[in-house]
Amino acid sequence: MSARTCIFFGSPQIIQRGSSEIEKYRKLLESGTVKGIKFFPGHDPYYPTDERCLPYYELCEKLNVPVLFHTGENSGDSDCAKWNDPKYIVDIAKKYPKLKVIITHYYWPKMEYCYETTKDVPNIYFETAAMADAEVIEKSGGIEKVREVLQKTISDRPDKVLFGTDWPMCKIEEHIELVKSLGLSKNVEDGVFYKNSARVYSLDANL
User: Fold this and answer.
1) Per-residue pLDDT averaged across 196-203, rounded?
2) CA-CA distance, 192 to 155, in Å (whole number)?
3) Euclidean distance between CA atoms 138 and 205, whole angstroms
């Protein structure tokens, strides 16, 4: 994929509009304008299992496009993580076994809990966004703890970790350095950086 390739995601306003925009998102997804739908439980007070989200999951499963979940704390707000606990995401992944489910931020700072909760669910993926951020690293127990959980995940399921940064809030270069510090083979590293994403988002890896 070229450095100029842009991938767009939709993000329904669950609290304000519920599932009323489902037809709008159907058209966006079917046209390829957006490549997935991201939900922000914790930014807004709803759980991933909220019934207003279910029509979107059903649509994405039918169209073979992923859903993404913001997880973990927000900077300065630890209480918000109760809304995006991975146990709820596991419930969704099991309810829709053909749905590709992506956990972003690895439920920081409780990354080990996230790993243990999700490790046996085959349709759950992970994105590295914000995992190289200084606050995330400090609150998650240090850089070695972050590396450890990524290494375990990749060792178990090398095709299930996707590169992400949360730019512009976080630095792209620091996330590249994090992945390169994991000691991966070139093939596995290429998977994390772009091949896994190309497969999950149904992209041409040669773009």
Assistant:
1) 94
2) 12
3) 34
Token code pair at residue 150? 């990524």
- CATH domain 14-200 topology: TIM Barrel (3.20.20)
**Whether residue 24 has pLDDT greater than 80:** yes
Can you give the residue ranges of every domain in the chain? 14-200
- The pLDDT tens digits for 103-160 are 999 999 999 999 999 999 999 999 999 999 999 999 999 999 999 999 999 999 999 9
DSSP characters for the chain? --TT-----B---HHHHTTTTHHHHHHHHHHTS-S-EEE-BTTBS--TT-TTTHHHHHHHHHHT--EEEE-SPBTTBSGGGGGG-HHHHHHHHHHSTTS-EEEEGGGTT-HHHHHHHHTT-TTEEEE-TTTT-HHHHHHTT-HHHHHHHHHHHHHH-TTSEE----TTTS-HHHHHHHHHTT---HHHHHIIIIIHHHHHTT--TT-
Give the number of residues written for the chain: 207
Digit-coded pLDDT (tens) for 38-49: 999 998 999 999
Distance between start and end Cα atoms, the chain: 4
